[in-house]
Specification:
2 domains; about 15% helix; rRNA-binding; 3 helices; mainly beta; ribosomal protein; 3-stranded mixed β-sheet; 5S rRNA binding; RNA Polymerase Alpha Subunit, Chain A, domain 2; elongated; about 190 residues; Rbsml_bL25/Gln-tRNA_synth_N; ribonucleoprotein
Length: about 190
């Protein structure tokens, strides 16, 4: 399901106008796509923060004078020091339309005792309906042993979600934890014996 944010059209542009908007607890945004002219918007800061904090691929219904539009958050620009949201790019989407998005890979479970896992892909590029984008793709490592490799083709993607990534591409590898002894400790131990 999508959230709803009420916005207003912007008529002023540039750094000064953007700063005034931010001081007024508004985030400058642009809505574009499907061959339409870009619509410049001002959105409430708190609503935008709540929208993007939980999902990198949030879908939102934007309500503004002139109608309502369904949009996918395409880009979030943040201040490098304060981490405040400075600008938002929104891609116009239609219900039922497939979009390409990067979805994070999330590991669940514990691999066999004495092993650890290494993610080879932190995100997967997926094609999904705009209103049905998974928040994460889970990889279950429960009980996996040394030498196990989980590949893209092994993943269980939600219904209607596809990927064009090579099915043989590694997502995760499980390996035995190896302890490397420090040479100084080894020499000290030999001298004491």
């Amino acid at each position: 399901m999508s959230d709803v944010i009420n916005g207003t059209k912007r008529t002023e542009f540039g750094k000064g106008a953007a700063r005034r908007l931010r001081r007024a607890k508004q985030v400058p945004a642009v809505l574009y796509g499907h061959g339409t002219d870009p619509v410049h918007l001002a959105l409430p800061t708190h609503d935008v923060f709540m929208l993007v904090k939980g999902s990198a691929n949030a879908v939102v219904e934007i309500s503004f004078e002139g109608g309502k539009e369904l949009a996918l958050v395409k880009s979030v620009q943040r201040d490098v020091v304060s981490n405040d949201i400075e600008h938002l790019d929104l891609l116009l989407v239609r219900r039922g339309e497939k979009v390409t998005v990067d979805v994070p890979v999330h590991v669940v479970g514990e691999s066999a005792v004495g092993t650890n896992h290494q993610l080879e892909l932190l995100t997967l590029e997926l094609q999904a309906e705009a209103t049905n984008i998974p928040e994460v793709i889970e990889v279950d490592v429960d009980g996996l042993t040394d030498g196990t490799v989980v590949r893209v083709g092994d993943l269980k993607l939600p219904q209607g979600v596809t990927t064009e990534i090579d099915p043989e591409a590694d997502v995760l590898t499980v390996s035995e934890i190896r302890v490397v002894e420090d040479e100084a400790d080894t020499e000290t131990g030999a001298e004491e014996a």
